[in-house]
């Protein structure tokens, strides 16, 4: 049995529901590319999640999955640094989902804030389905299956991560209570040796009696460092810190990325459903045309009317793509009517084109070598399944389902 270092393990996924745009790149993928070098990363193309809203028409699903894999690779995710896989190729996600569904109160799902919102957003589709209601729980299974401690998300996803933590806590509370838990936990403490058991006991006491959360963190760090301790004992001691029982499924933490939401061509949030996105696969001509068509500060009706970058949808793109010098030039030129909007857009067009070019070249290489892409996803799924199976052994055992 492998010891899982939850605090170093990252899981994140993306729905293959269409083309990827530069908002995904700057908001999510660049961060993943960075994380893959310092964490044990699992990145999952969550095709079952795409079905929660797009179950009626699956004609493009496999194309979207393939494109997503190619775009991820083209943007710099590497199979030698991260595990890249397709959710449905690891059926263990479904097993954990069904087990968690037994203990998840309906009211928890109904009060997830995005539930009502997205139903309204996707009007015209019948989302009164079991799958759509349950998707946060499927997300919980996706994360808990890998005992991932860190989930990089946008701030809008905080409620989802809280939900995952609630589900994990409920699972541990219900099934972490093995017979004789306290006796076993006390025995495990004695196995730590004189110094460490004394330390553990005093930290546990500080947390339980004074609610000292720093002591809790220190105790967790202590357990993490200990080498000669079985996974079972580690789970017991983690659980014993907070009372309860064994910690079978660790609670994940959200990790927020620093990059803000990228606005789209119309100044609203860039999103494929708002038809306001620059896509990673847009040609140089498409990029030029899209940016040229962008509306600018409405105050600049005539070339000589001064403007204010803060009111202009082009400005956030400049801030992301242009050098400080160019930004100063824009700020100066716009507010003094020294430059026109067409002029202002030109360096931006070039930077976006330049930024996309290497990504597109790499994507084209993968397009020509689809077997390589399939191979990467297949070995990713294998690696993911190994980890998933380990967790399910623990989960089944906790439920008394380790039949022999
Ligand atoms: P849809 O229109 O179907 O909602 P979308 O383009 O908004 O699609 P999502 O599938 O909702 O994309 O989002 C996938 C991931 O990309 C999420 O983690 C989300 O936070 C992030 N993301 C989406 N749009 C942006 C954006 N404009 N800027 C930064 N991050 C974004
Ligand atoms: Mg969206």
From TrEMBL:
Reaction catalyzed: tRNA(Trp) + L-tryptophan + ATP = L-tryptophyl-tRNA(Trp) + AMP + diphosphate + H(+)
GO CC annotations, alphabetized: cytosol
InterPro entries according to UniProt: aa-tRNA-synth_I_CS, aa-tRNA-synth_Ic, Rossmann-like_a/b/a_fold, Trp-tRNA-ligase, Trp-tRNA_synthetase
Record-level Gene Ontology MF annotations: ATP binding; tryptophan-tRNA ligase activity
Highest taxon in the source lineage: Bacteria
Top EC class, one word: ligase
Segment forming the signal sequence: none
Cross-referenced Pfam families: tRNA-synt_1b
EC number: 6.1.1.2
Keywords of the record: Aminoacyl-tRNA synthetase, ATP-binding, Ligase, Nucleotide-binding, Protein biosynthesis
Keyword Nucleotide-binding: yes
Presence of the UniProt keyword Phosphoprotein in the record: no
UniProt record, GO biological process: tryptophanyl-tRNA aminoacylation
PANTHER family xrefs: TRYPTOPHAN--TRNA LIGASE, MITOCHONDRIAL (PTHR43766:SF1)
Protein family per UniProt: Belongs to the class-I aminoacyl-tRNA synthetase family.
Protein's UniProt name: Tryptophan--tRNA ligase
Biological source species: Pseudomonas segetis
